[in-house]
Amino acid sequence: MQQPRLSIAELDRLLCAEFPQAFNTQSGLRIKEVWHGGARVERAFDGASLRPGGTISGPTIMMLADVTIYIAILATIGWVPLAVTTNLSVNFLRKPGPGALVAECRLVKVGKRLAVGEIAIRSVGQEDMVAHAVSTYSIPSRSADGDIIPSN
Q1: What are the tens digits of pLDDT across the range 36-62?
Q2: Cβ(121)–Cβ(64) below 8 Å
Q3: What CATH number labels 8-138?
């Protein structure tokens, strides 16, 4: 089995430097595990993420899904910060109560220009999914020496 191209420590360092607004000590995001083809990310509970009815908001769940596939892709192909979401589809399955969430992404396909993955999101310590997402990312082209080739 292939090893991830980036470790948790490397991803933490690079993401904090490149995206300080999203990856910082107050964000509540923590990379739990990475492997070639996947990642597991936890989001600590934050009362500000609750919506009326005492459930975690949809945008919070969607953000966790998007972050988790992004981390899975970077762990698998290496540092390509210009990879971007082209599609994110989320099925909300049950209301998560106030508490931490954990998302696990399994990459279904990683090509030269696109990566597709599915993400299962659960309340920490629970078996049943609260949401299931499928996402596609666009991966920028690279030259032979690894530089990003601008798209036309």
Answers
A1: 999 999 999 998 999 999 999 999 999
A2: yes
A3: 3.10.129.10
